[in-house]
Amino acid sequence: MNFNLKEAIEVLERTPRALGAMLSGLSEGWLRCDEGEGTWNPSEVIDHLIEGEKTNWVPRLAFILKEGEGKPFPAFDRFAHLKEKSGRTIEERLEEFAAVRAASLATLKELVGSEETLERTGLHPTLGVLKVRELLSAWVAHDLTHTAQIVRAMAGRYREDVGPMIVNLSILGSKR
Amino acid sequence: MNFNLKEAIEVLERTPRALGAMLSGLSEGWLRCDEGEGTWNPSEVIDHLIEGEKTNWVPRLAFILKEGEGKPFPAFDRFAHLKEKSGRTIEERLEEFAAVRAASLATLKELVGSEETLERTGLHPTLGVLKVRELLSAWVAHDLTHTAQIVRAMAGRYREDVGPMIVNLSILGSKR
């Protein structure tokens, strides 16, 4: 096991800055490219990350600490962000992500005061018993999953354009 | 085909900032994690990107524009960066990457003055005839390939830690 809270927070606090640096000011062609039907483009991924701060990670943490395994925490609608088309710019949404993430991390530090808290358990609606440390590990891996998704979608735009050099570019080799 | 020079430069100029925001100040555990034997950790990827600025992308572009298909451009040692262990901090190397990338982009803008230049061709040592536009597309995709590699390596550190939540985290599903 590799998880520790300090290192996890290092990644969580960097994600908004990294995605801000990657996406802010980009042309629409980059922001609207995806990996095919039913997949998300970079702009939609940011909406999903904002939604996760509001309804998923810290709310679930608080729920576990309150309810334990007594009742499962509410299911998270992973597609909620697709229903709301706000018309806000990517820069506005990246700023919102940075703000809600900062608030999440402040609450996290309040709620998880000790190593012992990391071992507390709750009940995931479909996956069963879940430890706080597993939820927090998943939060970090979730950031990285969606960062990778953005990067793969962008690389895919040039799948044809790279010509013979595709053989050296593993990211273009297959979709997932 | 999706390539255009302005949009390609948008990505190329953002990569050092994005990787700087992602990696600067991280613990060694994150900087030294890889995807298994023979794969690179985030720190080594930055060294590889620096090496690419010095010996690969713009030097090859200049070679194509000078020699055309007359002679193949020199092979690029993709493992050169592994030979030199500088002992410099990640922040120093991220700064160097930003500096050499800025210089590369300045030269790129000088060398590629028109759409016509994008159609010029050279000879890749193993892949044969290569257009300037293909080389530049590959440069962009190469940035994204290695950004994805960093992110996958980091996510992989928590493969066991996420417990039952692994089923929702596609990045942990398989290596590549």
TrEMBL record, chains A, B:
InterPro entries: DinB-like (IPR024775), DinB/YfiT-like (IPR034660). Residues 12-150 form the DinB-like domain. This is DinB family protein.
